[in-house]
Known about the structure:
Elements: H1 2-19, H2 42-55, H3 69-80, H4 83-104, H5 113-120, H6 122-127, H7 130-148, H8 151-158
Helix pairs in contact: 3-7, 4-7
Amino acid sequence: MKRRQAIRQIVVVSSGLALLPSCDFQSGGQAFKTYKHLPLDKSQFKLIEALQAAIFPTEKMPVNEGETPLDYMLTRINDCYSMDDVGKYLGGLKDFQKGVKSKFSKSFDKLSLEEQTQVLSEEFSKESTSSAKDFLEMNKRLTVEYFTKSEDYQVNHFGYEFIPSRYSGCVSL
């Protein structure tokens, strides 16, 4: 009987050790979503997330529980844009990374708030390549689009009511 328990424990421990290299303990429990037409590694994913936070801080804005602004933007690029546009986006991302790295010798997500603001200003855009400018503009446009098309923004800022609006039962004419 002890031989069976020893063999069982050896199998359990060896399978655990076989699965251990695939575990990522540095992600902080944050899920990394992959997209079919938009192959991003974790550093690029974090850069885009930091870029969105710099463009439109979400501390005071209510965010939809099901979909984050980053999910919206990357899903939109993955599903709605042509493969040429996705290629331009990825090329612009690489050029943007190189431009930030050459100017600040750090990645964008490691920069301070003032340095991130400087990157988003017009001065950095004039120095960068056209593909990096297009990448930055697409991120800005889709980030703002997420918030302006959200239910909270439509209801609280525009007073939008879903059709057919409210029902006024017996109204004297």
